[in-house]
Amino acid sequence: MLVGSVPLESSEAVFRLFGPTLGPYLPAIPDGETGERRWWVARFSRNVYSRHPDLEVLQRPPEEDLGTERLTRRGRGKSWLFRIRNGRAPRIGEPGTGMGFTLDAVASYEVFRRLRAEKVIPPGVRFQVSIPLPNSSASPGIFVPEDLPRMRAALKAALAAEAAEIARRIPHEDLAIQWDGSWEITDVYGGVPQLASGDAIERNVGQIRGLSAGIPETVLLGYHLCFGTFGGWPRFSPPDLGRAVAFANAAIEASGRRVDWLHMPTLDRTDDAFYAPLPELRPQGARVYLGMIHSMASFDARLAAARRFLPDFGVAAYCGFGRLEPAELPAILRDHLRAVKALAA
Length: 345
Prior knowledge:
By secondary structure, this protein is an alpha/beta fold. The chain is 33% helix and 13% strand. The chain has a 7-stranded parallel sheet with strand order 1-4-5-6-7-8-9.
């Protein structure tokens, strides 16, 4: 599977690159989250939060960082920071379109449909829309800690409305929606000092309850979990997959509907200890994809290690490719095709 972002100039370029080559092996194909979307949740700070009447800007990046080409921080202390204005209860944008996912999805779907008719995209492959989970969308360092619960509640409502609106505008049999969680996984491993107390699993699973209520069962639903790529991959390296497995089990249980796939990253580890928690995974029918298409010199050894604990799974990269350079894509494509052959062997 493909997680989401691709550093190309348009959704058509993404579909033309991956449709003919990986399309026969994919459950769904993303539009690449091109343009400013390649920076994932970083774009919200300037495009949504900084313009919101209920939010106050406490800190903004240096002037040279405000252009489209610099949505991410250059160093610590040089990012956006917000708080909710006194007495305000923020609502994020127009319900269903205020975060931008619906409008982007509808535009890309028209390209998807045209290229499928041209046989660039194989029949049966769905159009994939990836949306960050609320807790990743409002993380410590972007909002003051005391405002996180209210901001995350507002974002849950906004993102749930976007997912429901996408499902209303795109034919269900063509659609797959994926929830992306990065800060969630960092938090459940104790990597967010501002949120170190309390039950981290419950803190991050609570946002999932009711989030997919507006997504019909005829639409495929997946989760992408991540160790983070901002500042380089991985943002942190856990000792094993134990906490990720625990969170995945809780997320699937809390989803309130069928989950069709679960993507979980791996590291450059060939030892049994890292993969040993995988037998505890309870996918409840979801197809499991392990993010191990990287560092291909050790791919076969890592594949064998994971299979000792989880005999049946698909493969993917550890994350999207949005923070990489376009020149790296041919090698990435070759790695994916090699992984397909190894998986079938």
